[in-house]
Amino acid sequence: MEFTAQEKYEFKRLLEDLRSKSGRGTELISLYIPPDKQISDVTAQLRDEHGQASNIKSKLTRTNVQSALESVMARLRLIPRPPPNGVVIFVGAVDVGSNKTDMYSKVLEPPEPIVTYRYHCDSSFLLTPLEDMLADKKTFGLIVLDRREATIGTLKGKQVEAIKHLTSSVPGKQRKGGQSSRRFQQLRLIAIHDFYKRIGDSATEAFLPIDRDDLEGILIGGPSPTKEEFVNGSFLHHELQQKILEALDVTYTDESGLYELVEAAQDRLLDLELTQEKLVMRRFMKELVSDKGLASYGEKEVRQNLTMGAVDTLLLSEDLRKTRATIRCTNASCDYAKDETRSPNSPPPENCPKCGSQLEITGEVDIIADLSRMADESGSEVKIISTDFEEGAQLYRAFGGIAAILRFRTSSV
Ligand code: ZN
């Protein structure tokens, strides 16, 4: 499944939040239930765990584990069967500082189906299955070759996998006695060509079944001129031939050559990942310096442009850590209310300017969710920009993390 920019951001933030939680002992429970798992089986196991937990020596840990298990079982009673992607439950007494713990619980349906049932009790939550769902699913085909040996593999996210190893019967450059030099050269060329063809066929067999959209490109490594001969000779299926990104020098042509190839292609790979974000930031910068440019930045200005329906593309920094809060007067007979952008270190609301009573926060949403909602309402595109590259970092530092490319010029740029 493909995430929208905002879903991906929200999922990242959720994982960040879960990662920050820790228990005092091994008392945080993570439960991954696949869609085809019987809830009654899960409950039976938890009841068993509850019984075993009575052996835990530390009274505090024992109580915490048992009440977490009770809480999970109570949750499960509300779920007659797992939803289509299964369900994940996190429960436990998390450390909240100053020697206190708080019972935390979170139930969620993951963006992709859960494959393996997991019950995990530790001092932190088990997040790897969810982190894997967030990982880049893009695949690259890898081929390393010389005239004697070739290895075919893939790169998925950061994972290199070798698929096939081939060796050739191409004779060495030295001919044996009795053969004519010309005849020998001819045979050698035929053998080389045959070997390239075998590599091409094996690579086609390996790469063609990969979903067309998931196969981002093919990297080829080897010494010169072997790799160029292979690329120029069109030995791959024509659809795959078009996906060749680059041919790079590598020394090894066994499995270690695949790693060498990925290493050599690092810059190119990073570029590809960031291209979308880079392109949109470049567009923004261009508008910014042009005379009648369509760039807008700053929260107030961008908000105003969103309200006017003037925003074509909304650019939000992934590192924004702000919320939009609804603040009301606690005095029931006073109607004072306002919206306010807050950061983690904002002071508590002051007193009501109308009646002097205490103000309170009655609602609070992540600012990225708040602005994305406004963008959705006016059909604007939302791009959430990481700070992993120069222009992305600049969006955060120089433009407060909030900017827009406009449809038309307004007075609020
Ligand atoms: Zn008031």
Automatic annotation (TrEMBL):
UniProt-listed InterPro entries: eFR1_2_sf (IPR042226), eRF1_1_sf (IPR024049), eRF1_2 (IPR005141), eRF1_3 (IPR005142), eRF1_Pelota-like_N (IPR005140), Peptide_chain-rel_aRF1 (IPR020918), Peptide_chain-rel_eRF1/aRF1 (IPR004403), Ribosomal_eL30-like_sf (IPR029064)
Gene Ontology molecular functions: translation release factor activity, codon specific
Subcellular compartments: Cytoplasm
Transmembrane region(s): none
One Pfam family this sequence matches: eRF1_2
GO CC annotation terms, alphabetical: cytoplasm
Coarse class of the protein's main subcellular location: cytoplasm
Keyword set, alphabetical order: Cytoplasm, Protein biosynthesis
Boundaries of every eRF1/Pelota-like N-terminal domain copy: 1-135
Function summary: Directs the termination of nascent peptide synthesis (translation) in response to the termination codons UAA, UAG and UGA.
Family named by the database record: Belongs to the eukaryotic release factor 1 family.
Assembly and binders: Heterodimer of two subunits, one of which binds GTP.
HAMAP family (alphabetical): Rel_fact_arch_1 (MF_00424)
Listed name of the protein: Peptide chain release factor subunit 1
